[in-house]
Design brief:
Helices cover 50% and strands 19% of the residues. By secondary structure, the chain is α+β, with helices and mostly antiparallel strands. The strands form 3 sheets. The protein has a 6-stranded antiparallel sheet with strand order 7-6-5-10-9-8. Strands 11-12-13-15-14 form a 5-stranded mixed sheet. It has a 4-stranded antiparallel sheet with strand order 1-4-3-2. The radius of gyration is 54 Å and the shape is rod-shaped.
Length: 568
Protein backbone atom coordinates (compact mmCIF):
# COMPACT_ATOMS: atom_id res chain seq x y z
CA UNK A 1 0.00 0.00 0.00
CA UNK A 2 2.77 2.45 0.92
CA UNK A 3 4.79 1.60 -2.18
CA UNK A 4 1.77 2.15 -4.40
CA UNK A 5 1.04 5.50 -2.80
CA UNK A 6 4.63 6.70 -3.16
CA UNK A 7 4.74 5.62 -6.80
CA UNK A 8 1.44 7.36 -7.54
CA UNK A 9 2.50 10.59 -5.86
CA UNK A 10 5.82 10.56 -7.69
CA UNK A 11 4.00 10.19 -11.01
CA UNK A 12 1.71 13.08 -10.11
CA UNK A 13 4.64 15.29 -9.15
CA UNK A 14 6.39 14.40 -12.41
CA UNK A 15 3.44 15.30 -14.57
CA UNK A 16 2.66 18.37 -12.49
CA UNK A 17 6.22 19.52 -13.07
CA UNK A 18 5.69 18.94 -16.80
CA UNK A 19 2.66 21.24 -16.88
CA UNK A 20 4.09 23.91 -14.56
CA UNK A 21 7.72 24.11 -15.68
CA UNK A 22 7.03 26.43 -18.63
CA UNK A 23 7.86 29.45 -16.47
CA UNK A 24 11.33 28.08 -15.79
CA UNK A 25 12.18 26.89 -19.30
CA UNK A 26 13.77 30.00 -20.89
CA UNK A 27 16.66 30.06 -18.43
CA UNK A 28 17.49 26.43 -19.22
CA UNK A 29 17.05 26.67 -22.96
CA UNK A 30 19.03 29.89 -23.25
CA UNK A 31 22.31 27.97 -22.92
CA UNK A 32 23.91 25.98 -25.74
CA UNK A 33 22.33 22.57 -25.72
CA UNK A 34 19.51 23.91 -23.58
CA UNK A 35 16.71 21.91 -25.22
CA UNK A 36 18.65 18.69 -24.78
CA UNK A 37 19.37 19.51 -21.13
CA UNK A 38 15.71 20.37 -20.55
CA UNK A 39 14.34 17.31 -22.30
CA UNK A 40 16.78 14.83 -20.78
CA UNK A 41 15.00 14.24 -17.43
CA UNK A 42 11.60 14.58 -19.10
CA UNK A 43 12.39 11.98 -21.77
CA UNK A 44 13.48 9.55 -19.06
CA UNK A 45 10.09 9.80 -17.36
CA UNK A 46 7.65 10.37 -20.25
CA UNK A 47 7.80 8.66 -23.68
CA UNK A 48 6.80 11.56 -25.92
CA UNK A 49 5.22 10.84 -29.34
CA UNK A 50 7.64 10.85 -32.28
CA UNK A 51 6.56 12.99 -35.25
CA UNK A 52 9.11 12.41 -38.05
CA UNK A 53 6.74 13.30 -40.91
CA UNK A 54 5.61 16.63 -39.50
CA UNK A 55 7.37 19.93 -40.04
CA UNK A 56 8.57 21.77 -36.99
CA UNK A 57 6.50 24.63 -35.61
CA UNK A 58 8.93 27.21 -36.99
CA UNK A 59 8.70 25.82 -40.53
CA UNK A 60 4.94 25.46 -40.33
CA UNK A 61 4.44 29.05 -39.19
CA UNK A 62 6.87 30.39 -41.83
CA UNK A 63 5.18 28.50 -44.68
CA UNK A 64 1.71 29.41 -43.44
CA UNK A 65 2.58 33.12 -43.39
CA UNK A 66 4.20 32.92 -46.82
CA UNK A 67 1.25 31.02 -48.29
CA UNK A 68 -1.26 33.46 -46.80
CA UNK A 69 0.57 36.42 -48.33
CA UNK A 70 0.81 34.73 -51.73
CA UNK A 71 -2.85 33.72 -51.72
CA UNK A 72 -3.91 37.24 -50.80
CA UNK A 73 -1.67 38.91 -53.40
CA UNK A 74 -3.92 38.41 -56.45
CA UNK A 75 -7.25 39.36 -54.78
CA UNK A 76 -5.56 42.30 -53.10
CA UNK A 77 -4.09 43.49 -56.41
CA UNK A 78 -7.52 43.16 -58.06
CA UNK A 79 -9.28 45.11 -55.32
CA UNK A 80 -6.72 47.92 -55.35
CA UNK A 81 -6.74 48.09 -59.16
CA UNK A 82 -10.54 48.27 -59.21
CA UNK A 83 -10.42 51.05 -56.65
CA UNK A 84 -7.83 53.00 -58.61
CA UNK A 85 -9.74 52.46 -61.87
CA UNK A 86 -12.97 53.69 -60.23
CA UNK A 87 -11.18 56.77 -58.93
CA UNK A 88 -9.84 57.55 -62.39
CA UNK A 89 -13.31 57.15 -63.89
CA UNK A 90 -14.90 59.51 -61.34
CA UNK A 91 -12.17 62.10 -61.81
CA UNK A 92 -12.49 62.03 -65.60
CA UNK A 93 -16.29 62.29 -65.39
CA UNK A 94 -16.11 65.37 -63.18
CA UNK A 95 -13.46 67.04 -65.39
CA UNK A 96 -15.35 66.14 -68.57
CA UNK A 97 -18.57 67.78 -67.38
CA UNK A 98 -16.78 70.87 -66.12
CA UNK A 99 -14.66 71.36 -69.25
CA UNK A 100 -17.58 70.61 -71.59
CA UNK A 101 -19.60 73.39 -69.96
CA UNK A 102 -16.64 75.73 -70.35
CA UNK A 103 -16.31 74.92 -74.06
CA UNK A 104 -20.06 75.26 -74.64
CA UNK A 105 -19.99 78.78 -73.22
CA UNK A 106 -17.07 79.99 -75.38
CA UNK A 107 -18.10 82.81 -77.82
CA UNK A 108 -16.15 81.31 -80.77
CA UNK A 109 -18.16 78.09 -80.41
CA UNK A 110 -21.49 79.96 -80.42
CA UNK A 111 -20.31 82.12 -83.35
CA UNK A 112 -19.19 79.09 -85.38
CA UNK A 113 -22.61 77.39 -84.93
CA UNK A 114 -24.42 80.59 -86.03
CA UNK A 115 -21.90 81.96 -88.52
CA UNK A 116 -20.58 81.10 -91.91
CA UNK A 117 -18.30 78.29 -93.18
CA UNK A 118 -15.12 80.28 -92.55
CA UNK A 119 -15.87 80.57 -88.85
CA UNK A 120 -16.58 76.85 -88.69
CA UNK A 121 -13.29 76.06 -90.39
CA UNK A 122 -11.35 78.23 -87.92
CA UNK A 123 -12.98 76.53 -84.91
CA UNK A 124 -11.08 73.19 -85.12
CA UNK A 125 -7.55 74.63 -84.60
CA UNK A 126 -8.89 76.65 -81.66
CA UNK A 127 -10.45 73.55 -80.05
CA UNK A 128 -7.24 71.59 -80.52
CA UNK A 129 -5.44 74.35 -78.64
CA UNK A 130 -8.03 74.16 -75.89
CA UNK A 131 -7.64 70.35 -75.82
CA UNK A 132 -3.94 70.62 -75.21
CA UNK A 133 -4.44 73.25 -72.52
CA UNK A 134 -7.12 71.15 -70.75
CA UNK A 135 -5.21 67.90 -71.04
CA UNK A 136 -8.19 66.21 -72.68
CA UNK A 137 -8.03 63.51 -75.33
CA UNK A 138 -10.55 65.18 -77.58
CA UNK A 139 -12.83 68.22 -77.79
CA UNK A 140 -15.77 67.78 -80.18
CA UNK A 141 -18.35 70.40 -81.19
CA UNK A 142 -21.36 69.36 -83.33
CA UNK A 143 -24.42 71.02 -84.71
CA UNK A 144 -27.97 69.96 -83.96
CA UNK A 145 -27.65 67.01 -86.35
CA UNK A 146 -24.54 65.81 -84.39
CA UNK A 147 -22.30 66.45 -87.37
CA UNK A 148 -18.78 67.17 -86.11
CA UNK A 149 -17.37 70.66 -86.50
CA UNK A 150 -14.16 69.79 -84.60
CA UNK A 151 -12.20 66.58 -83.95
CA UNK A 152 -8.55 65.70 -83.16
CA UNK A 153 -8.52 63.79 -86.43
CA UNK A 154 -9.45 66.27 -89.22
CA UNK A 155 -10.74 63.43 -91.42
CA UNK A 156 -13.54 62.83 -88.88
CA UNK A 157 -14.89 66.39 -89.26
CA UNK A 158 -18.34 66.40 -90.83
CA UNK A 159 -19.12 62.84 -89.73
CA UNK A 160 -21.85 62.23 -87.16
CA UNK A 161 -20.74 61.80 -83.57
CA UNK A 162 -20.75 58.08 -82.53
CA UNK A 163 -22.31 56.48 -79.45
CA UNK A 164 -24.32 57.63 -76.49
CA UNK A 165 -27.40 59.72 -75.87
CA UNK A 166 -28.19 62.35 -78.55
CA UNK A 167 -31.66 63.32 -77.35
CA UNK A 168 -30.88 64.90 -73.99
CA UNK A 169 -28.84 67.81 -75.33
CA UNK A 170 -31.73 68.78 -77.66
CA UNK A 171 -33.83 69.21 -74.50
CA UNK A 172 -31.15 71.44 -73.01
CA UNK A 173 -29.81 68.69 -70.62
CA UNK A 174 -26.20 67.76 -70.00
CA UNK A 175 -25.17 64.06 -70.04
CA UNK A 176 -22.01 62.33 -68.77
CA UNK A 177 -21.43 58.86 -70.21
CA UNK A 178 -18.89 56.18 -70.83
CA UNK A 179 -18.86 55.04 -74.44
CA UNK A 180 -16.74 53.27 -77.02
CA UNK A 181 -15.95 56.04 -79.48
CA UNK A 182 -13.80 56.31 -82.52
CA UNK A 183 -10.68 56.90 -80.38
CA UNK A 184 -11.49 54.15 -77.85
CA UNK A 185 -13.33 53.77 -74.58
CA UNK A 186 -13.76 57.15 -72.97
CA UNK A 187 -15.65 59.23 -70.43
CA UNK A 188 -17.29 62.28 -71.99
CA UNK A 189 -19.97 64.84 -71.27
CA UNK A 190 -22.44 66.27 -73.80
CA UNK A 191 -23.41 69.83 -72.96
CA UNK A 192 -25.83 71.79 -75.19
CA UNK A 193 -24.52 74.99 -76.85
CA UNK A 194 -27.17 77.67 -76.45
CA UNK A 195 -27.75 80.88 -78.33
CA UNK A 196 -28.46 84.17 -76.62
CA UNK A 197 -32.18 83.35 -76.84
CA UNK A 198 -31.69 79.92 -75.25
CA UNK A 199 -32.01 77.99 -78.50
CA UNK A 200 -29.98 74.76 -78.76
CA UNK A 201 -27.44 75.25 -81.52
CA UNK A 202 -25.46 72.05 -81.03
CA UNK A 203 -23.37 70.32 -78.37
CA UNK A 204 -19.88 70.51 -76.91
CA UNK A 205 -18.15 67.36 -75.63
CA UNK A 206 -14.80 67.05 -73.86
CA UNK A 207 -13.62 63.43 -73.50
CA UNK A 208 -10.92 61.55 -71.63
CA UNK A 209 -9.81 58.12 -72.81
CA UNK A 210 -9.93 55.51 -70.04
CA UNK A 211 -6.86 53.37 -69.44
CA UNK A 212 -7.21 49.58 -69.64
CA UNK A 213 -7.70 47.81 -66.32
CA UNK A 214 -4.71 45.58 -66.84
CA UNK A 215 -2.55 48.65 -67.41
CA UNK A 216 -3.84 50.10 -64.13
CA UNK A 217 -3.13 46.78 -62.40
CA UNK A 218 0.40 46.75 -63.77
CA UNK A 219 1.03 50.28 -62.59
CA UNK A 220 -0.42 49.46 -59.15
CA UNK A 221 1.72 46.33 -58.97
CA UNK A 222 4.95 48.14 -59.73
CA UNK A 223 4.07 50.94 -57.32
CA UNK A 224 3.06 48.61 -54.44
CA UNK A 225 5.59 45.80 -54.98
CA UNK A 226 8.37 47.27 -52.79
CA UNK A 227 5.93 47.91 -49.95
CA UNK A 228 4.38 44.46 -50.36
CA UNK A 229 7.75 42.72 -50.30
CA UNK A 230 8.76 44.76 -47.25
CA UNK A 231 5.56 43.77 -45.43
CA UNK A 232 6.11 40.13 -46.41
CA UNK A 233 9.69 40.18 -45.11
CA UNK A 234 8.53 41.78 -41.85
CA UNK A 235 5.74 39.21 -41.41
CA UNK A 236 8.09 36.30 -42.10
CA UNK A 237 10.66 37.68 -39.67
CA UNK A 238 8.05 38.14 -36.96
CA UNK A 239 6.71 34.62 -37.60
CA UNK A 240 10.20 33.20 -37.11
CA UNK A 241 10.68 35.16 -33.87
CA UNK A 242 7.26 34.08 -32.61
CA UNK A 243 7.91 30.44 -33.52
CA UNK A 244 11.29 30.51 -31.77
CA UNK A 245 9.73 32.02 -28.63
CA UNK A 246 6.85 29.52 -28.72
CA UNK A 247 9.20 26.55 -29.02
CA UNK A 248 11.28 27.78 -26.10
CA UNK A 249 8.12 28.06 -24.03
CA UNK A 250 7.05 24.56 -25.16
CA UNK A 251 10.33 22.88 -24.11
CA UNK A 252 11.31 22.65 -27.79
CA UNK A 253 8.44 20.20 -28.29
CA UNK A 254 6.00 19.96 -31.14
CA UNK A 255 2.26 20.48 -30.48
CA UNK A 256 1.57 16.79 -31.11
CA UNK A 257 4.16 15.83 -28.51
CA UNK A 258 2.65 18.21 -25.96
CA UNK A 259 -0.81 16.79 -26.64
CA UNK A 260 0.53 13.25 -26.22
CA UNK A 261 2.25 14.19 -22.96
CA UNK A 262 -0.97 15.72 -21.64
CA UNK A 263 -2.86 12.54 -22.55
CA UNK A 264 -0.29 10.52 -20.58
CA UNK A 265 -0.71 12.95 -17.70
CA UNK A 266 -4.49 12.57 -17.80
CA UNK A 267 -4.20 8.78 -17.92
CA UNK A 268 -1.96 8.71 -14.86
CA UNK A 269 -4.17 11.13 -12.94
CA UNK A 270 -7.33 9.15 -13.68
CA UNK A 271 -5.69 5.80 -12.90
CA UNK A 272 -4.52 6.78 -9.40
CA UNK A 273 -6.53 5.41 -6.50
CA UNK A 274 -5.85 8.56 -4.50
CA UNK A 275 -7.55 11.86 -5.07
CA UNK A 276 -5.01 14.45 -6.22
CA UNK A 277 -5.22 18.24 -6.13
CA UNK A 278 -2.50 20.67 -7.25
CA UNK A 279 -2.78 23.95 -5.36
CA UNK A 280 -0.99 27.21 -6.16
CA UNK A 281 -1.70 30.48 -4.41
CA UNK A 282 -4.84 29.16 -2.73
CA UNK A 283 -6.33 28.06 -6.09
CA UNK A 284 -6.85 24.47 -7.22
CA UNK A 285 -5.45 24.04 -10.75
CA UNK A 286 -5.59 20.23 -11.04
CA UNK A 287 -8.23 17.89 -9.61
CA UNK A 288 -8.62 14.30 -10.79
CA UNK A 289 -11.99 12.45 -10.81
CA UNK A 290 -11.09 10.52 -7.65
CA UNK A 291 -10.63 13.79 -5.76
CA UNK A 292 -14.02 15.05 -7.00
CA UNK A 293 -15.65 11.83 -5.81
CA UNK A 294 -13.97 11.92 -2.38
CA UNK A 295 -14.77 15.61 -1.88
CA UNK A 296 -18.31 15.19 -3.19
CA UNK A 297 -18.08 18.13 -5.62
CA UNK A 298 -19.42 18.20 -9.20
CA UNK A 299 -17.26 18.67 -12.27
CA UNK A 300 -16.48 22.36 -12.72
CA UNK A 301 -14.07 24.68 -14.49
CA UNK A 302 -10.67 25.14 -12.85
CA UNK A 303 -9.14 26.95 -11.08
CA UNK A 304 -11.39 27.12 -8.03
CA UNK A 305 -10.61 28.48 -4.54
CA UNK A 306 -9.32 25.83 -2.17
CA UNK A 307 -11.50 27.19 0.66
CA UNK A 308 -14.64 26.08 -1.19
CA UNK A 309 -13.37 22.48 -1.15
CA UNK A 310 -11.47 22.31 2.17
CA UNK A 311 -12.68 24.97 4.59
CA UNK A 312 -9.81 24.22 6.95
CA UNK A 313 -7.12 24.85 4.35
CA UNK A 314 -4.08 22.71 3.59
CA UNK A 315 -2.55 20.48 6.31
CA UNK A 316 1.13 20.73 7.15
CA UNK A 317 3.42 19.19 4.47
CA UNK A 318 4.79 15.71 5.06
CA UNK A 319 2.19 14.65 7.64
CA UNK A 320 -0.87 12.47 6.93
CA UNK A 321 -3.81 14.14 8.66
CA UNK A 322 -7.36 12.75 9.00
CA UNK A 323 -10.02 15.19 7.78
CA UNK A 324 -13.79 15.22 7.87
CA UNK A 325 -15.08 16.66 4.59
CA UNK A 326 -18.86 16.88 4.26
CA UNK A 327 -19.28 14.02 6.72
CA UNK A 328 -16.77 11.74 4.99
CA UNK A 329 -13.53 10.80 6.78
CA UNK A 330 -10.46 11.30 4.59
CA UNK A 331 -6.72 10.97 5.06
CA UNK A 332 -4.89 13.95 3.56
CA UNK A 333 -1.20 14.38 2.80
CA UNK A 334 0.60 17.42 1.33
CA UNK A 335 3.88 17.52 -0.56
CA UNK A 336 5.62 20.74 -1.58
CA UNK A 337 6.88 20.77 -5.20
CA UNK A 338 9.43 23.49 -4.50
CA UNK A 339 8.05 26.04 -7.01
CA UNK A 340 5.24 27.48 -4.93
CA UNK A 341 2.76 24.67 -5.62
CA UNK A 342 1.53 21.92 -3.31
CA UNK A 343 0.22 18.47 -4.22
CA UNK A 344 -2.59 17.33 -1.94
CA UNK A 345 -3.40 13.60 -1.91
CA UNK A 346 -6.68 12.35 -0.46
CA UNK A 347 -7.56 8.77 0.51
CA UNK A 348 -10.69 7.24 1.92
CA UNK A 349 -9.93 6.80 5.63
CA UNK A 350 -12.34 3.87 5.92
CA UNK A 351 -10.46 2.03 3.16
CA UNK A 352 -7.12 2.87 4.77
CA UNK A 353 -8.35 1.45 8.05
CA UNK A 354 -9.64 -1.66 6.31
CA UNK A 355 -6.22 -2.17 4.73
CA UNK A 356 -4.62 -1.63 8.13
CA UNK A 357 -6.94 -4.27 9.59
CA UNK A 358 -5.93 -6.73 6.90
CA UNK A 359 -2.27 -5.97 7.54
CA UNK A 360 -2.73 -6.47 11.28
CA UNK A 361 -4.46 -9.81 10.71
CA UNK A 362 -1.67 -10.89 8.39
CA UNK A 363 0.87 -9.98 11.03
CA UNK A 364 -1.12 -11.97 13.60
CA UNK A 365 -1.19 -15.02 11.36
CA UNK A 366 2.53 -14.68 10.70
CA UNK A 367 3.16 -14.54 14.45
CA UNK A 368 1.05 -17.64 15.01
CA UNK A 369 2.84 -19.51 12.26
CA UNK A 370 6.16 -18.51 13.78
CA UNK A 371 5.04 -19.84 17.17
CA UNK A 372 3.84 -23.10 15.64
CA UNK A 373 7.09 -23.47 13.71
CA UNK A 374 9.09 -22.88 16.88
CA UNK A 375 7.06 -25.39 18.86
CA UNK A 376 7.13 -28.10 16.17
CA UNK A 377 10.86 -27.57 15.72
CA UNK A 378 11.41 -28.17 19.42
CA UNK A 379 9.20 -31.27 19.32
CA UNK A 380 11.05 -32.64 16.32
CA UNK A 381 14.38 -32.06 18.02
CA UNK A 382 13.11 -33.86 21.13
CA UNK A 383 11.82 -36.80 19.06
CA UNK A 384 15.08 -36.98 17.16
CA UNK A 385 17.02 -37.09 20.42
CA UNK A 386 14.80 -39.81 21.91
CA UNK A 387 15.07 -41.95 18.79
CA UNK A 388 18.81 -41.45 18.70
CA UNK A 389 18.99 -42.68 22.32
CA UNK A 390 16.77 -45.63 21.47
CA UNK A 391 13.97 -44.43 23.75
CA UNK A 392 11.20 -45.41 21.37
CA UNK A 393 8.58 -45.73 24.14
CA UNK A 394 9.26 -42.19 25.30
CA UNK A 395 9.12 -40.97 21.70
CA UNK A 396 5.78 -42.70 21.12
CA UNK A 397 4.43 -41.30 24.39
CA UNK A 398 5.46 -37.81 23.33
CA UNK A 399 3.77 -38.27 19.96
CA UNK A 400 0.59 -39.57 21.57
CA UNK A 401 0.54 -36.72 24.09
CA UNK A 402 1.03 -34.16 21.32
CA UNK A 403 -1.71 -35.79 19.26
CA UNK A 404 -4.12 -35.85 22.21
CA UNK A 405 -3.38 -32.19 22.91
CA UNK A 406 -4.08 -31.17 19.33
CA UNK A 407 -7.19 -33.34 19.29
CA UNK A 408 -8.40 -31.64 22.44
CA UNK A 409 -7.73 -28.22 20.91
CA UNK A 410 -9.56 -29.20 17.72
CA UNK A 411 -12.52 -30.46 19.76
CA UNK A 412 -12.56 -27.20 21.71
CA UNK A 413 -12.97 -25.08 18.58
CA UNK A 414 -15.12 -27.48 16.56
CA UNK A 415 -18.41 -25.77 17.40
CA UNK A 416 -17.08 -22.45 16.17
CA UNK A 417 -17.75 -23.90 12.66
CA UNK A 418 -16.02 -21.14 10.73
CA UNK A 419 -12.63 -22.24 9.44
CA UNK A 420 -10.73 -18.97 9.70
CA UNK A 421 -11.85 -18.27 13.25
CA UNK A 422 -11.17 -21.89 14.28
CA UNK A 423 -7.70 -21.73 12.71
CA UNK A 424 -7.05 -18.50 14.59
CA UNK A 425 -7.94 -20.14 17.92
CA UNK A 426 -5.76 -23.18 17.16
CA UNK A 427 -2.85 -20.90 16.42
CA UNK A 428 -3.41 -19.09 19.71
CA UNK A 429 -3.00 -22.40 21.57
CA UNK A 430 0.53 -22.64 20.17
CA UNK A 431 1.16 -18.98 20.94
CA UNK A 432 0.01 -19.53 24.54
CA UNK A 433 2.29 -22.53 24.89
CA UNK A 434 5.23 -20.44 23.65
CA UNK A 435 4.48 -17.74 26.25
CA UNK A 436 3.86 -20.24 29.05
CA UNK A 437 0.19 -19.37 29.40
CA UNK A 438 -2.70 -21.82 29.76
CA UNK A 439 -5.39 -21.04 27.19
CA UNK A 440 -8.89 -22.46 27.55
CA UNK A 441 -11.77 -22.14 25.12
CA UNK A 442 -15.09 -22.29 26.93
CA UNK A 443 -17.14 -25.39 26.15
CA UNK A 444 -20.14 -23.12 25.43
CA UNK A 445 -18.30 -21.50 22.51
CA UNK A 446 -20.41 -22.05 19.40
CA UNK A 447 -21.56 -20.04 16.41
CA UNK A 448 -24.31 -20.60 13.85
CA UNK A 449 -23.32 -21.46 10.29
CA UNK A 450 -24.93 -18.38 8.73
CA UNK A 451 -22.90 -15.57 10.33
CA UNK A 452 -22.74 -12.60 7.94
CA UNK A 453 -19.24 -11.98 6.49
CA UNK A 454 -18.93 -8.50 8.04
CA UNK A 455 -19.80 -9.82 11.50
CA UNK A 456 -17.44 -12.77 11.08
CA UNK A 457 -14.61 -10.38 10.17
CA UNK A 458 -15.36 -8.35 13.31
CA UNK A 459 -15.36 -11.49 15.51
CA UNK A 460 -12.09 -12.64 13.99
CA UNK A 461 -10.47 -9.20 14.42
CA UNK A 462 -11.67 -8.91 18.03
CA UNK A 463 -10.70 -12.48 19.00
CA UNK A 464 -7.21 -12.14 17.52
CA UNK A 465 -6.43 -8.82 19.22
CA UNK A 466 -8.09 -9.53 22.58
CA UNK A 467 -6.52 -12.99 22.95
CA UNK A 468 -3.06 -11.69 21.96
CA UNK A 469 -3.32 -8.85 24.49
CA UNK A 470 -4.51 -11.27 27.17
CA UNK A 471 -1.63 -13.69 26.50
CA UNK A 472 0.90 -10.86 26.76
CA UNK A 473 -0.75 -9.53 29.95
CA UNK A 474 -0.74 -12.98 31.66
CA UNK A 475 2.69 -14.06 30.43
CA UNK A 476 5.35 -14.34 33.10
CA UNK A 477 2.95 -14.88 36.01
CA UNK A 478 2.81 -18.09 38.06
CA UNK A 479 -0.91 -18.59 37.47
CA UNK A 480 -1.04 -17.42 33.84
CA UNK A 481 -4.44 -18.32 32.45
CA UNK A 482 -6.56 -17.01 29.58
CA UNK A 483 -10.17 -18.03 28.95
CA UNK A 484 -12.09 -17.39 25.73
CA UNK A 485 -15.81 -17.52 25.04
CA UNK A 486 -17.23 -16.98 21.52
CA UNK A 487 -20.93 -17.67 21.45
CA UNK A 488 -24.29 -16.60 20.04
CA UNK A 489 -27.69 -16.15 21.68
CA UNK A 490 -31.00 -14.56 20.64
CA UNK A 491 -29.67 -11.11 21.55
CA UNK A 492 -26.63 -11.34 19.31
CA UNK A 493 -23.07 -12.59 19.61
CA UNK A 494 -20.36 -12.15 22.19
CA UNK A 495 -16.59 -12.48 22.37
CA UNK A 496 -15.34 -12.60 25.96
CA UNK A 497 -11.64 -12.90 26.85
CA UNK A 498 -10.39 -13.15 30.45
CA UNK A 499 -6.80 -13.16 31.70
CA UNK A 500 -5.07 -13.30 35.05
CA UNK A 501 -2.82 -10.37 34.27
CA UNK A 502 -2.37 -7.22 36.33
CA UNK A 503 -5.31 -5.48 34.66
CA UNK A 504 -5.66 -2.17 32.87
CA UNK A 505 -3.79 0.73 34.52
CA UNK A 506 -6.24 3.23 36.00
CA UNK A 507 -4.74 6.14 34.04
CA UNK A 508 -5.39 4.34 30.73
CA UNK A 509 -8.85 2.97 31.46
CA UNK A 510 -10.75 5.82 29.79
CA UNK A 511 -8.56 6.08 26.66
CA UNK A 512 -7.45 2.48 26.16
CA UNK A 513 -9.23 2.03 22.81
CA UNK A 514 -7.73 5.18 21.28
CA UNK A 515 -5.01 4.76 18.66
CA UNK A 516 -1.50 4.89 20.11
CA UNK A 517 -2.62 4.33 23.74
CA UNK A 518 -0.97 1.25 25.29
CA UNK A 519 0.77 0.15 28.46
CA UNK A 520 3.33 -1.79 26.38
CA UNK A 521 5.32 1.20 25.16
CA UNK A 522 5.81 3.25 21.97
CA UNK A 523 4.60 1.78 18.68
CA UNK A 524 1.70 -0.14 20.18
CA UNK A 525 -1.95 0.76 20.75
CA UNK A 526 -3.27 -0.17 17.29
CA UNK A 527 -5.20 -3.41 17.77
CA UNK A 528 -7.82 -2.22 20.24
CA UNK A 529 -8.31 0.99 18.25
CA UNK A 530 -9.05 -1.06 15.12
CA UNK A 531 -11.49 -3.27 17.02
CA UNK A 532 -13.24 -0.21 18.48
CA UNK A 533 -13.53 1.45 15.03
CA UNK A 534 -14.94 -1.68 13.41
CA UNK A 535 -17.29 -2.24 16.35
CA UNK A 536 -18.63 1.30 16.12
CA UNK A 537 -19.26 0.83 12.41
CA UNK A 538 -21.46 -2.23 13.11
CA UNK A 539 -23.17 -0.95 16.25
CA UNK A 540 -21.28 -3.33 18.53
CA UNK A 541 -19.99 -2.51 22.02
CA UNK A 542 -16.46 -3.13 23.35
CA UNK A 543 -16.00 -2.95 27.13
CA UNK A 544 -13.59 -4.11 29.84
CA UNK A 545 -13.84 -4.63 33.60
CA UNK A 546 -12.28 -6.50 36.52
CA UNK A 547 -14.07 -9.63 37.87
CA UNK A 548 -13.36 -12.30 40.52
CA UNK A 549 -14.08 -16.03 40.12
CA UNK A 550 -15.46 -18.42 42.77
CA UNK A 551 -11.95 -19.13 44.05
CA UNK A 552 -11.38 -15.45 44.68
CA UNK A 553 -8.91 -15.06 41.82
CA UNK A 554 -9.12 -11.69 39.98
CA UNK A 555 -9.49 -11.59 36.17
CA UNK A 556 -9.39 -8.84 33.57
CA UNK A 557 -12.34 -9.24 31.19
CA UNK A 558 -12.80 -7.74 27.73
CA UNK A 559 -16.21 -8.18 26.11
CA UNK A 560 -17.46 -7.48 22.60
CA UNK A 561 -21.25 -7.52 22.25
CA UNK A 562 -22.62 -7.64 18.71
CA UNK A 563 -26.37 -7.00 18.71
CA UNK A 564 -28.71 -9.12 16.59
CA UNK A 565 -30.00 -7.44 13.43
CA UNK A 566 -29.19 -7.02 9.75
CA UNK A 567 -25.48 -7.24 10.44
CA UNK A 568 -25.59 -10.11 12.96
Amino acid sequence: MNTTRRTGVRAVLCHTALTMSVQRVPSRLGRPGGPVDGLGPLAREVALPHTPRLLRVRSRLFLTTLGAFLLLAVPLLGLISQGVYGGIHRSFAERSLRESRLVAALPPVVAALTGDAAQRTALNPLMNTYRELLGADYVVVTDRTTARLTHPTPARIGEPMAGGDFAAFLRGQSVTETVEGTLGRSVRSKVPVLSGQGQVLGLASVGFLLPRLRDVARDVLWAALPWYLGALALALGLSLLLARRAQREMLDLEPEQIAGGLLHYRTVMNALEEGVLVVRGGQVYVMNPQARALLGVPAQELPVPLDTLLPGGLPAPGVAVPLDVRGRPLLAGVQDTGDGAQVLTLRDLARVRALADELTQSQRYAELLRAQTHEFTNRLHTLAGLLHLGETREALALIHAQSERHTAHADAVRNVRHVRLAALLLGKFDRAAELGVTLNVDALSALPADVPPATLDLLELAAGNLIENALEAASGRSDAHVRVLIAADPDGMVVEVRDTGAGVPAELAATLTQRGVSSKGVGRGVGLALVQTRADAQGATLSHDRVTDSAGRPWTRFTLDVPAGDGA
